[in-house]
Amino acid sequence: MGTVTDSETDLIRRAQSDDSAAFCSLAELYARRIYLLAFHYCRNAQDAEDLSQEVWLKAYQALRGFRSDSSFYTWLRRITINSFLNHQRSSTFRRQGQTSVAELIDSGSEKLLASHATSPETIYNKVLFESVMSALADLTPTQRLMFLLRHYEGMSYDEIAGAMNVSPGTVKKAVSRAIGKLRVKLEIENEEPETEQLTQLAAQEF
Amino acid sequence: MHNCKKTTERITELLLDGGDPRQSLSTELRECAECRAEFRVLKETLQLTTRLMDTATPPDSYWPGYHARLKEKLHAAQQPHVEPGQFRPERRQPSFLSRLFRSSIRIPVPVGLALILISVVAFVWGRGSKQPTVSIVHVPVEVPREVPVVQEKTITQIVYKERPAKRSRATRISAPNDAAVASLDGFKPAEEVKLTVIKGGAANEK
Hints:
The structure holds 2 protein chains of 2 kinds. Chain A is an all-alpha fold. Chain A is about 70% helix and about 0% strand. Chain A has a domain at about 1-95: RNA polymerase sigma factor, region 2, helix turn helix motif (Rna Polymerase Sigma Factor, Chain: A). Chain A contains 11 helices and no strands. Chain B is about 50% helix and about 0% strand. Chain B has helices at about 5-15, 20-25, 25-30, 35-55, 60-80, 95-100, 110-130, 170-175, 180.
């Protein structure tokens, strides 16, 4: 994903020559990642589509400035972060509230419809979806973005700090707070097994 | 020396990087129950949020529509884009009237404010000097008004007082001859009385 493949290089070159079909092919390669990042950031399916498509429009307009000194995705992600931050500043998300499980089922979410509707797995997925979305809603937009970039995108603190014009310490603190809030919201029990079983369990695990 | 806080931070970093803390922090986890519990909670928190990513992925049927909408937006964005040096059709000159109504002048803000202030003062002054002489006719309007009435009771009591009878002088004098004095019936003057009135003073008297 990080390296620019030959076909990708060719697509970029053609897209830079105003070949919109080549640009759409490039978009097809990364659309899902950008969409999911947008979805987890704004927690609403329609806003996620609008936001991710805005990223692609900006990328299309700025594509002539892409110099291949970084991967295309790294360059695209920078545009994505800037778009998210602009939205955060202007607070122009049209729809308030998050997408519910019902809306996601209406849209035909793969995992929610994968198994039988009443199967324990589906019910668990629904509960999980609601609880994690609710937990993400408790984070500030900046915390949420930093957590997503660190956890989902695997960016380092330095990379996030560079992209968001803050210090690495600020990013680290925000990610730590985000995880703290999530674990409280998700109510994950901090139960230690019985003392007698502890040594046995530790011996088995390690 | 074991430090729970530092170990927790390292566990978080390892989990965020997709590593397994049980390998690099095996000693700490085996010896410290608190760190072991912390590891379990952090691992579960991050696993739950990762599962959300899979759950929220739109189905394959969603993406053709997404890309079609993106193409439309790209096409719309390309419309006003004109390359430098490219032929640009001249715009129709608007008519004199439309130019007159649409024309505007730029004035500095203080000047504008001063003009507005002058207009307001002139308006107020004009209104003040042209006070219309309206004869005020007092129209009596009956307004029913409840007046509290003090309930008064007038009690009249007639008191009969015994008074001592008055003693008149006439009664006392005429007590023995009551019948002669009280009645003048049959009175006749016995002789004529001649009165001579002498005019003048003492010098003429002889």
